[in-house]
């Protein structure tokens, strides 16, 4: 009797813990969100969202016919705080700027209801420039991002295609190689940079998705995917399946890192905190390259923190990095984590 009771207790514990973390990719693809949710902007302010709203067609038509709707702001060590505007189809704007085709190019894409000046852009810009001589291009797609959430989601492919076309133009003008480009996006921005990489035939060195947005993306063919770059990485920090996570919570990349299980983060009491922790962890990884994941053979191993496979560092700025599979990495509550 004692043995049977023990077995029943173990089974109950496994069932509870398994429901609180990313489930198998096949199962979590079927996630159904309630119609009305709240989704944060880059500052962490929550906005009411109706996932069944009709998108604003005029905005979608504009991004389809006018790829110049995006803004591209260049920062280098010669102008680390004051942006230079790079204009699509304007060679002089590029040739007269501080853009250096001989160093890596980092592209940063914000998320929903955000702009060039909202997180993660300033922090990641400063970190990359302090560490090495690079071009940092901040994509401002706020004309689409500040619309309602459904319109922003529908607009992501067009925004991403426009970014890809701009990078192709940049390559044609300067010779800057795609193999020296790293595209990084937060939340909806993760899907933007995925689409940009896809527009370029997966030729860029890296695409990194920082807790790619979940609502309206689980069965969406336009989401970030392993084919978007030579190496695609996703950092999952708020992907709870049954607890309303803001992140997608399923495999979308070559290497998918589930931080502390991928559902919530140490020291965070809200989904917003866990969702935004993704860019802070990535920022720390660029500085110190100290967050190490261990490969997992199943989602249950991610849940129970029993991953024992090969190690792979999370994030960082290595343009030749490569890996595949699911990984769990554990961090502390405060920076540098």
What does this structure look like?
- The chain has 337 residues and is of the alpha/beta class.
- The chain has one domain: 3-Layer(aba) Sandwich (Rossmann fold), CATH 3.40.50.1820.
- The chain is built from ten helices and 13 strands.
- Strand 3 and strand 4 form a beta hairpin.
- Helix 3 packs parallel to helix 7, helix 5 runs parallel beside helix 9 and helix 7 packs across helix 8.
- The radius of gyration is 20 Å and the shape is globular.
- The N terminus is likely disordered.
Summed up:
It is found in: Secreted. By secondary structure, the protein is of the alpha/beta class. The protein is built from ten helices and 13 strands.
